[in-house]
Amino acid sequence: MPETDALRGQLSRLLAWRDAHAGFDAAVRGLHPSLRGRVPDGGAHSVWQLLEHIRIAQADILEFCVSRRYKEKTWPEAYWPKSPRPPRAGSWRRSIAAYRRDRRALQRLAMDRRIDLFAPVPNGTGQTYIREILLIADHTSYHVGQIVAVRKQLGAWK
Prior knowledge:
Distance between the termini: 43 Å
Number of domains: 1
CATH superfamily: dinb family like domain
CATH topology: Four Helix Bundle (Hemerythrin (Met), subunit A)
Number of strands: 0
CATH architecture: Up-down Bundle
Helix content: 55-70%
């Protein structure tokens, strides 16, 4: 069991990793509201779109892992906001809060000894819990890198 507990701890930490690069919290911190919905010249997405995509994808994977009523969403429409700008004044803050709440839920899932990390997720087609946790960590890391790149293009990264 000590090896499994160590693995669970590593997975939990991986979801909020920031050792080798900027993490999610640093990437979204301190961005002026006027830049959140701005797509840089030649860019594909605004920071808002990347933030929302990360949140939506993480929420989807969490739901996939824990809900018996999970329904697959339509790709890519359901995973990307249409507008580059946050729809309302509080949307940015709410999106970050929801992301953090779901990240904590995934960390609890990783630490839950009642769940066999190598067992298939009941709603899936062979995907395991460990695969889904690693997938969301990888996905988030990729898009956090994009947020940093967009912020650099906008002149808003230290």
